[in-house]
Sequence to fold (162 residues):
Amino acid sequence: MAGLIDIDLGSVIKAGGQVLDNLFTSDEERLNAQLKDKALDLQVVSGQLAVNKAEAEHRSIFVAGWRPFIGWVGGCALAYKFIFYSLICWGWSVARAKGWIGVNVPVPPDVDASQLYPIILGLLGLGGMRSYEGVKGVKTNSIGQKHQSTKKKSGFHWPWSK
Fold:
């Protein structure tokens, strides 16, 4: 009967300990896991900063000019919607009255600028922040550069600057 119940008690305890260790994580193990996550996040952020710096230093408009491109697209869309579209509609009605354009030809499409407003307002906000930094003399021109005084030595001062 003793041969049937021949169990290695040490291996049972070791297996039970491994199961409990897998179920419960110590504070030190949690902190090490968080530290590894933060290190990976830091690598991603530093890589993105290097890409941003390279893009900002590039002379080509196709690499460094995406911000101005978005501004120009937004400006052109707003100009079309609020200035040119009204003039086009007026000219279209005059051309129809004169018989130059057929009655069945539709008016050019209007632009739905509701999706464009958040982008334009964001760009205007960033531009305002950069202007404010320039007035306060803390404007920087590259990533990681410490601020340099950009105040002019003239006697003119903005009303809101000190």
